[in-house]
Amino acid sequence: MLAREQAESLFLENLGQIARIIAALCRRSGIWGDEADDFASWAKVRLLEEDYARIRKYRGESSIATYLSVVLAMLHREYCVHRWGRWRPSAAAQRAGPLAVRLETLVRRDRLPLLQAGELLRTNGETTLSDRSLATLLASLPTRQPLRPLDVGDSALVRQEAATRADGDVDEQDDRDERDSTFRLLAQTIDELPTEDRLAIQLHYWSEMSIADISRTLGVAQKPLYRRLHRAMLRLRKRLEAAGVSRELVREIAGKLAS
C-alpha cells in the first residue's frame, strides 16, 4: 500500500483527471448543475477519507487514470443509492428493451426533464428517436411511486421529502402510510387515463415540462393541451377524494386546480 505522502501527491497531480472522470460520469447518468457539483465535492471528500485510503490501494497494475475511473464509478453508484435509493427498472421497461430502461431511469429516477433525457440519449448514440417518440415510449411505461416524495407547496407532484421520521413517532408513520397508499392510488389512476392525458400529466408534473414545450414536443396546440391537462387533473382529484384521501393531502398533490 502506498504511503500517505505518495497518495496525496497522486491525488494532487491528477485533480484534472479526476474532474474529467466525474464530469463524464455525470453526463452519462444525466446529473446536471448543482447536483453534479454536489457529487463532485462528495466524491473528492471520499477520496481524501482515512488518509487517502482509496488511492493508497493503487498498486500500479494499470494506469492511474484507469484506476481512478474504476474507483469513481463505484463512488458514483454509491452516491446514487444514497441519494435516491436502489432503483430497479419496471417489468414493462425491461420487456420494451434497453432504451426504455434507460429512458425510465433518466426521467423517473434521475428526474431529468424529457427534453434533456432525449438529447442525452441521442448524444450518446443510444437512440435516434424524436422527443415525441420518446414521450410516447415513456407514456407506455407504468407510473411508479417516485423515489422523491411530495414536498408541501411544490407545484410538481413529486419532490424530495424534507424530513425523516423519528423512531416511535406513530402519527408521522400514519401520515407516511397515507402518502404511500395515496401515491399507489395516484399511479394506478394515471395509468388508467387515455394515453394523451397520461402523457400530458407525466411530462408536465414528472418531467416538469412547460405547456409550451409539451406542445412543441407532441405537435399539438397549447389551448387544447391546457384543457386536456385540466380535465385529467380534475379526474385524479375526484378519484383521490372518493377513495377517502384527506383533503389536505389532495390539495398538496393536486396543487392549484379549479374547484
Task: Quickly list its features.
disordered C terminus, elongated, Arc Repressor Mutant, subunit A, Rna Polymerase Sigma Factor, Chain: A, 3 domains, 259 residues, 13 helices, mainly alpha
Secondary-structure map:
Blueprint: H1 4-13, H2 15-29, H3 33-56, H4 64-84, H5 91-96, H6 98-109, H7 114-123, H8 131-139, H9 170-191, H10 195-206, H11 211-218, H12 222-242, H13 247-254
Helix pairs in contact: 1-3, 2-3, 2-4, 3-4, 6-7, 8-10, 10-12, 12-13
Description:
The chain has 259 residues and is mainly α. It folds into three domains: 4-84, Orthogonal Bundle (Rna Polymerase Sigma Factor, Chain: A); 87-132, no CATH class; 143-254, Orthogonal Bundle (Arc Repressor Mutant, subunit A), CATH 1.10.10.10. The chain is built from 13 helices and no strands. It has helices spanning 4-13, 15-29, 33-56, 64-84, 91-96, 98-109, 114-123, 131-139, 170-191, 195-206, 211-218, 222-242, 247-254. Helix 2 packs across helix 3 (33-56) and helix 10 crosses helix 12. The longest helix is centred in the first third of the chain and has 24 residues, at 33-56. The chain is elongated. 25% of the residues are buried. Mean pLDDT is 76; it is low at 146-170 and 255-259.
Over the alpha carbons, how many angstroms does the gyration radius reach? 22 Å
Number of helices: 13
Shape: elongated
Question: What's the average pLDDT?
Answer: 76
> What's the total count of β strands?
0
Number of domains: 3
CATH class of the largest domain: Mainly Alpha
The portion of residues assigned to helices is 55-70%
CATH architecture label of the largest domain: Orthogonal Bundle
N- to C-terminal separation? 68 Å
> What pattern of helices and strands is seen along the backbone?
HHHHHHHHHHHHH
In the CATH hierarchy, the third-tier topology of the largest domain is known as Arc Repressor Mutant, subunit A
Low-confidence stretches: 146-170, 255-259
According to CATH, the homologous superfamily of the largest domain is Winged helix-like DNA-binding domain superfamily/Winged helix DNA-binding domain
What's the story with the biggest beta sheet?
none
